[in-house]
Design goal:
Elements lengths: L16 E4 L2 E4 L10 H5 L2 E9 L2 E2 L2 H14 L8 H14 L6 E8 L18 E8 L6 H4 L1 E5 L7 H4 L9 H11 L5 E5 L5 E4 L3 E6 L2 E4 L9 H13 L3 E3 L4 H5 L3 E6 L3 E8 L2 E2 L7 H18 L2
Parallel strand pairs: 7-8, 7-14, 11-12
Antiparallel strand pairs: 1-2, 1-6, 3-4, 3-5, 5-6, 8-9, 10-11, 10-13, 13-14, 14-15
């Protein structure tokens, strides 16, 4: 079954314009070179954004994360955050978009003189692509929920491959999902190198036990904007929250659980490693936090 990124098809997406290095081109004509560092090596970073009631949600936080990632890989794209925002808004205007869109902002090191890893062997011009599509999470997923299965593929520490970097290279995460698909997993539940619960392969993970919201300390999981918002909302809502190193058995015994991400917001979980969670989906605390998150989105989108 599809995971948290499942979406309903929208015919409006067939004729959208795609931003490629300053040009707005029809979807069918959007191309990058086969010598592009992103294609050849996964050498680049990206951001996902949501358009809600005419505003790009939590834009400043997303751009801070993007530019921090660019700094980590020593890539200067030649645009300030304000200039890049103007290009994003130009893409939305070209497509007449005001609401219900999901954007992917992709930046790679660009075309290289030859196919090899050395970042010095590039032609000096990064590749910037912006896709904006009408995409909403599948409504059925809220009551169906996700099946999570623990993967043998582990999350990695920052000194090996920093999970908090939104790298174009997602192969370790794809391997984790492949690892659990034949076992009925919609997404992979991933542990850190010490065996504690970290995240899922595409989202961050929370669970509820005895009225307490629990999640990892965050050292080995995605630097999620939605994760940070949910942590803040727990305090705002007066919900007990613990960030700690938890064994997977603790999550398997949860009353309810959910995953977080820019696209899906808060997506309920129905089972972990074949154990069905007792709460009717979405669970009561999941429902409360989903409602709080919708209010937060409306506040952020307000003029």
């Amino acid at each position: 079954m599809p995971g948290s990124q499942d979406f309903a098809a929208d015919p409006r997406n067939a004729d959208l314009k795609i931003y490629v290095n300053g040009a707005l081109v029809p979807r069918a004509e959007a191309r990058v070179s086969i010598f592009d560092a992103g294609f050849v090596l996964g050498d680049g970073v990206w951001e996902g954004l949501r358009l809600h009631k005419g505003r790009l949600l939590f834009l400043e936080t997303h751009l801070e994360r993007l530019y921090r990632g660019l700094q980590d890989i020593a890539l200067d794209i030649g645009l300030s955050p304000a200039e890049l925002t103007a290009e994003i808004e130009r893409t939305l205007a070209a497509n007449g978009m005001q609401d219900g869109a999901h954007l992917r902002l992709m930046v790679t090191r660009g075309e290289k003189a030859a196919v090899n890893q050395d970042p010095r062997n590039w032609l000096g011009k990064p590749t910037i692509v912006i896709t904006a599509e009408y995409k909403q999470p599948s409504p059925q997923i809220v009551t169906r929920g996700l099946s999570l299965v623990t993967s043998s593929i582990l999350c990695t520490p920052a000194e090996m491959f920093d999970m908090r970097l939104n790298s174009h290279s997602r192969l370790n995460l794809i391997r984790a999902l492949i690892d659990v698909m034949d076992k009925g997993g919609d997404e992979a539940l991933m542990l850190d190198p010490h065996g504690f619960v970290s995240s899922c392969n595409a989202t961050n993970f929370f669970w509820v036990r005895d009225g307490e919201v629990r999640t990892s300390k965050g050292d080995y999981c995605f630097n999620g904007v939605t994760r940070a918002n949910v942590i803040a909302l727990c305090e705002e809502e007066g919900l007990p929250l613990v960030l700690d190193n938890f064994p997977v058995e603790d999550a398997r015994g949860a009353d309810e659980a959910f995953v977080t991400g820019t696209f899906g917001g808060l997506t309920p979980v129905r089972e972990i490693d074949g154990q069905t969670l007792p709460a009717t989906l979405p669970g009561p605390i999941t429902t409360r936090l989903r409602a709080a998150y919708e209010r937060l989105k409306d506040r952020d989108a307000a003029p």
